[in-house]
Amino acid sequence: MSETNEHSTQISKNISIKIDVKDILELLSKYDEEKSELVSQIETLKNKIVEYETQISELKQQITEFNNQKSIEELISELANEPEPNDHKAYNYRGLICYHLDKKTRKQAIRDFDRAIELNPNDASYYYNRGLVYKRSWYDKKAIDNFYKAIELDQSFAANAHKECGDVHLQRGSYEGTQSQYEKAVQEYDKAIEFNPNDYESYYNRGRAHKDLRQYKCAIQDYTKSIELNPNYAVAYYNRGECYKSLDEMEKAQADFEKFKELDDNK
């Protein structure tokens, strides 16, 4: 009877150990998932910073082209002044300033671009600029309609407008987690690259869409092309590393993570 009890006790211990190991594995798996989500959030934040820096650069260029004799402070102070009734360029200019100032001024930006288009409906840049505001305000259809109108009026806007449309779908896909949005993003980036095959950001963004679709090999190809065009594009190395990791190619993944850290530390 004693031997039976000892045997039962040993079995109980074995069962307990197995349960403990299982619990530990589940906790480790949960930790990996949360870590991956955190890394993804950091990547999204870095992408937004890059996007904002690009937009600021574009605004400065447009302001310079509009009137390079005035300082930024002087231009902003003129926001309080209503443009001349028929000066479509002035409405477009004020719309750009309102767009970049604060989200509270985006409605004013829309009104200004509406007025600029009313006065001059054949200027593609006005539709493109209005599309940017709608994009940032999450009015997806209106944004895409404006970008396509810009392309219709002036093919020189095609590369950037298709890229912006891709960003709209990628943004929506990231928010909703819907496969169809990522697929539409890929289609738009395809068109953007067709018009400008040297734009490293279009390859990178298409790579992000492929990655979210779990099409890791396609994503790696896009990240590799982006890096070829811009060898110092740190986030491309990181994301390519994530894809290699998903394919269990750990040596390549580690090399990309190290390159990302090197570039990120040198900023």
Describe, in plain words, how this protein is organized in 3D.
The chain is an all-alpha fold and 267 residues long. It has a domain at 43-138: Serine Threonine Protein Phosphatase 5, Tetratricopeptide repeat. Helices cover 82% and strands 0% of the residues. It contains twelve helices and no strands. Helix 3 (88-101) packs antiparallel against helix 4 and helix 11 packs antiparallel against helix 12 (250-265). 34% of the residues are buried.
Total number of strands: 0
Describe the main β-sheet briefly: none
Helix content: over 70%
The helix/strand series, from N terminus to C terminus, equals: HHHHHHHHHHHH
Q: What do the pLDDT scores average to? A: 83
Q: What's the shape?
A: elongated
Query: The CATH topology of the domain at 43-138, please?
Result: Serine Threonine Protein Phosphatase 5, Tetratricopeptide repeat
CA radius of gyration is 25 Å
Beta fraction: under 5%
Relevant terms:
267 residues, mainly alpha, Serine Threonine Protein Phosphatase 5, Tetratricopeptide repeat, 12 helices, elongated
Topology summary:
Blueprint (H helix, E strand, L loop, with lengths): L1 H65 L5 H6 L10 H14 L4 H14 L4 H13 L3 H14 L4 H19 L2 H17 L4 H13 L3 H14 L4 H13 L3 H16 L2
Helix pairs in contact: 1-3, 3-4, 3-5, 4-5, 5-6, 6-7, 7-8, 7-9, 8-9, 9-10, 10-11, 11-12
Short description:
With 267 residues, the chain is mainly alpha-helical.
